[in-house]
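Thread amino acids onto this structure.
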């Protein structure tokens, strides 16, 4: 965490859905890690709320367990007590929101909606009815709607009660240090911005691959699929940061203006340039894994995609004609989020290589997770009497260059919301534009193709990118 940050002003933190998996896996660990770094608000309660009653003791134990299991910093009793002393639980029964109001101690609060999207509207109306809008900053999880009409409806429900400046829409990818570093890489180094355009760049590839399947979340995933779960949000957000114009200044609205302007130039998906896939049984890391249709709570005739590859174009002066390949999938060979920028080849090559890939043009790889590194591939002369060339790599690794362990995305996002900084949150207009981009394929999807678990998706995805090749393959 940067230590130039202002101290976090007094406020209560309310987690509606405070017993769910997001609260346990991410939110309590993030609050604990903030407590370790002394970044919790100067004063204020931490209030968990859910419909199922729970004693305060049981709730503290639930939070403590999650901290022990998932916090970045190891468990320390003194740091835990800084959370425990503030923690309380409110049951959301008939008098729930009235009791919630009584539990609060500060005029300002962060309210985290960690509940199913279908309950967002009701929760916001209940906050309003109980006088809890003024002083609230609302953190809201993705997915924001499940298509353009439902996103518009949800937006209206929120905007009927709250001002846009009070709404912090989370895309947790934006909280990752490596994603923020794209901005520093582009706008902090004079070298790259000069070649960041159609004159020098041949194509761009962004892959978000997971080796996991859907685990026990079959009914959740059946409502979502890869297009809604990853393409509409994470992939388009990364793309907008990677390709937007330089903002007029580095304040939140200037950056968000440029991201939105970029998304306006992205052409809506064309089903002829989209490949949808669903994994069948296969092997990952030597272990046999189930196919999607064998997962719990998935119907035999499910048409939900677990893989999407798409070719998109950005219709502006900087990027016209540069193909952009987006790809995401579950049950891929390993977990990796990476960007690959392929540069144009030299106009005429003088050098021969000893095998075909020796002559690959320059490329830049931005690895977001789990590896956090940037590497640039260039050709070098192989030592010896003749001129023979081979690609070599220059690389920068976060781990090797910075001794401090980066904060988790949720730590950063919760902290920014408490400070009222919206830079890393998605503005309403960007969310709507992202839905407009994917909507044609939601309305009229291309056929669903099989791919074996442990592979990089259907073969048709390779044809989509030809004559280029996926960097991860
Ligand atoms: N889990 C993750 O890692 C993850 C990642 C990204 C985004 N998200 C998003 O985060 C949200 C929560 O997901 P989750 O996985 O934590 O769900 P979950 O495990 O099902 O937990 C939902 C929580 O909300 C409460 N709840 C459910 N309906 C409610 C209602 N109508 N009013 C008030 N409380 C209600 C539940 O307790 P009661 O049933 O007792 O009320 C529980 O505390 C979802 O929007 C999801 O899309 C989750």
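Threaded sequence (473 positions):
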């Amino acid at each position: 965490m940067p230590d130039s940050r202002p101290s976090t002003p007094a406020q209560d933190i309310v987690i509606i859905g405070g017993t769910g998996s997001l609260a346990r896996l991410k939110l309590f660990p993030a609050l604990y890690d903030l407590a370790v770094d002394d970044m919790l608000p100067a004063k204020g309660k931490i209030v968990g709320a859910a419909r199922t009653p729970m004693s305060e003791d049981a709730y503290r134990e639930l939070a403590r367990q999650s901290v022990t299991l998932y916090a970045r910093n190891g468990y320390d009793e003194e740091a835990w007590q800084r959370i425990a002393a503030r923690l309380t639980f409110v049951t959301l029964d008939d008098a729930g929101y009235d009791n919630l109001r009584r539990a609060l101690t500060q005029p300002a609060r962060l309210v985290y909606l960690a509940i199913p999207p279908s309950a967002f509207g009701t929760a916001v109306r209940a906050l309003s009815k109980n006088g809890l809008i003024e002083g609230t900053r609302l953190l809201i999880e993705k997915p924001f709607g499940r298509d353009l009409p439902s996103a518009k409806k949800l937006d209206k429900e929120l905007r009927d009660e709250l001002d846009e400046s009070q709404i912090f829409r989370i895309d947790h990818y934006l909280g990752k240090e490596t994603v923020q570093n794209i901005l520093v890489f582009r706008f902090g180094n004079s070298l790259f911005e000069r070649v960041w355009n159609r004159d020098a760049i041949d194509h761009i590839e962004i892959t978000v691959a997971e080796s996991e399947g859907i685990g026990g979340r079959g009914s959740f995933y059946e409502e979502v699929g890869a297009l809604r779960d990853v393409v509409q949000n994470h992939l388009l957000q990364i793309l907008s940061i990677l390709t937007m114009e330089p903002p007029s200044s580095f304040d939140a609205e200037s950056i968000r203006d440029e991201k939105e302007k970029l998304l306006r130039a992205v052409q809506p998906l064309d089903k002829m340039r989209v490949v949808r896939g669903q994994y069948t049984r296969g092997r990952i890391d030597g272990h046999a894994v189930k196919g999607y249709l064998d997962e719990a709570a998935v119907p035999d005739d499910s048409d939900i995609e677990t893989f999407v590859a798409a070719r998109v174009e950005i219709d502006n002066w900087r990027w016209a004609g540069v193909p952009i390949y987006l790809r995401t999938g579950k049950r891929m060979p390993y977990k990796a989020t990476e960007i690959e920028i392929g540069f144009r080849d030299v106009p005429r090559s003088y050098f021969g290589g000893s095998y075909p890939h020796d002559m690959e043009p320059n490329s830049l790889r931005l690895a977001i997770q789990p590896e956090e590194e940037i590497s640039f591939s260039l050709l070098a002369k192989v030592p010896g009497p003749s001129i023979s060339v081979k690609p070599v790599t220059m690389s920068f690794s976060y781990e090797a260059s910075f001794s401090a362990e980066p904060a988790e995305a949720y730590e950063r996002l919760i902290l920014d919301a408490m400070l009222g900084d919206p830079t890393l949150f998605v503005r309403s207009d960007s969310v709507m534009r992202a839905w407009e981009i994917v909507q044609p394929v939601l309305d009229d999807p291309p056929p669903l193709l099989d791919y074996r678990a442990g592979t990089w998706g259907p073969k048709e995805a390779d044809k989509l990118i030809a004559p280029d090749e996926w960097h991860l393959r």
